[in-house]
Amino acid sequence: MGKVTGFMEYERLEEGYEPAPVRLKNYKEFVIGLNVEQAKQQGARCMDCGTPFCNNGCPVNNVIPDFNDLVYKGRPEDWKNAIAVLHSTNNFPEFTGRICPAPCEAACTLNVNDDAVGIKSIEHAIIDRAWAEGWVTPQLPKVKTGKKVAVVGGGPAGLAAAQQLARVGHSVTVFEKNDRVGGLLRYGIPDFKMEKSHIDRRVEQMKAEGVEFRTGVLIGAMPEGSKVTNWATQTISADELKAQFDAVVLTGGAEQSRDLPVPGRDLAGVHFAMEFLPQQNKVNAGDKLKNQLRADGKHVIVIGGGDTGSDCVGTSNRHGAKSVVQFELMPQPPEVEDRPLTWPYWPIKLRTSSSHEEGCEREFAIATKEFLGEKGKLTGVKTVRLQWQGGKMTEVEGSEQILKADLALLAMGFTAPVATVLEAFGVDKDQRGNGKASTEGANAYKTNVDKVFAAGDIRRGQSLVVWAIREGRQAAKAVDEYLMGASTLPR
Questions:
Q1: What does each C-alpha distance from 355 to 195, 230, 313, 404, 408 come to in angstroms?
Q2: How far is CA 474 from CA 54, 94, 481, in A?
């Protein structure tokens, strides 16, 4: 694929960024994508490796060598074919081309001892050109089946399932508890990583394909005192939904944030990341919020070293935080992975995001012992250093210290979907609190409740957007087979 000797002739070319001082002034995307010639050169690096491990490294099994080769060939008709290849496995490459961590690149054969092909940047270039050229159009069903399907959850899993089911002729209604469609893409991912116009554009395409969207509708109930984002203005019972539709697909996110039950947790100024991030996205959309949670002029401590924590760092810096410190429980990983040892799997290595580069102090092997405060307000965080030996964590004696903090954001991942939604339908849960359903065989994605299916985070737990899209697509095929006896949808 590509140019036979291309991987020896061309270096990996990274997408560019606007300078930090410029991008910190707004919430717009700042990645500078590859132009046509740069994408062609990057596609040339895709080698004739025999077994393209990138395909299996990608959860949706994108046919990566094929679209790399088409971009390398470079004619307009080749680019048009490239988006057809990309869309054959991925409904929303504009999402994954921006926010997927690219496990395909970790699995690239070149990555054994060289720099991987810039697969994600090529995907980004293909879909952006496809939208610009008008190649992305509604795909209307040839016939209507008369079957009605409810999709509960408007995130990437729900959107993928809805689009696939609509395209084979089912009448699909997506129910979303918040005021806009997108799930955690909408109210979790900051706009500077993915502007929400990309979601809106897809929603319009799906409406043209026959999908109905009902926002502000909660199915079931929320737990009392829940901190999960919920802007619903209407409630519908699970029984009503089962009575009105021929099939129901549960595709909600794993929205229950992992808590940190240490002394001082109830102080004003200690919040979940998912209280902080959705508010800014809502303001960016033009809404007005009273008492918005902001980091202006504050000493901010972000507890959790993953992507959500990084998003808190970037948002805090845009607010104008006085200082930002990010904690990670684990020791600092190596800057360069042992490629022959880890390839083709996802390696553990130090990952520095664009938000970190904008200004952030990072602390590794550190734990929070207590939140300190005065008159009910957070003033500091007591910490202790950790030592890891044989996979076991112990505190380093005498290493306690106190760091100043006006705002502490808990970004330690998510534990499970909202239990009351599953309970409303009577769906069995696994040991982790997720909806219980297998992904293979005749009962793929089926729950224990007749005509109720589960896919995405609500079934597998916290995961990547690309896994959500995969499960949404596969669940759509399972639902179509359930309703019609057979399906032409791809697995």
A1: 16, 27, 6, 21, 17
A2: 20, 20, 11
Nearest to 299 by CA among 273, 262, 259, 326: 326
Contact (CB, 8 A) for 241 and 379: no
Q: Which two tokens stand for residue 229?
A: 């984002």
Phi-psi region of 454 (alpha: psi -120 to 50; beta: other; left: phi over 0): beta
Q: Residue for token digits 């996802």?
A: 346
- Cα separation, 357 vs 61, whole angstroms: 32
Task: Please choose, from the candidates 36, 39, 93, the residue with its C-alpha nearest in 3D space to the C-alpha of residue 62.
Answer: 93
Peptide bond into 156 cis (omega under 30): no
Q: What is the CA radius of gyration of the chain?
A: 23
In whole angstroms, give the CA distance from residue 155 to residue 165. 15
CA dihedral 39, 42, 48, 50 (to 10 degrees): -90
pLDDT in tens, the chain (491 residues): 678 899 999 999 999 999 999 999 999 999 999 999 999 999 999 998 989 999 999 999 999 999 999 999 999 999 999 999 999 999 999 999 999 999 999 999 999 999 999 999 999 999 999 999 999 999 999 999 999 999 999 999 999 999 999 999 999 999 999 999 999 999 999 999 999 999 999 999 999 999 999 999 999 999 988 999 999 999 999 999 999 999 999 999 999 999 999 999 999 999 999 999 999 999 999 999 999 999 999 999 999 999 999 999 999 999 999 999 999 999 999 999 999 899 999 999 999 999 999 999 999 999 999 999 999 999 999 999 999 998 899 999 999 999 999 999 999 999 999 999 999 999 999 999 999 999 999 999 999 999 999 999 999 999 999 999 999 999 999 999 999 999 999 98
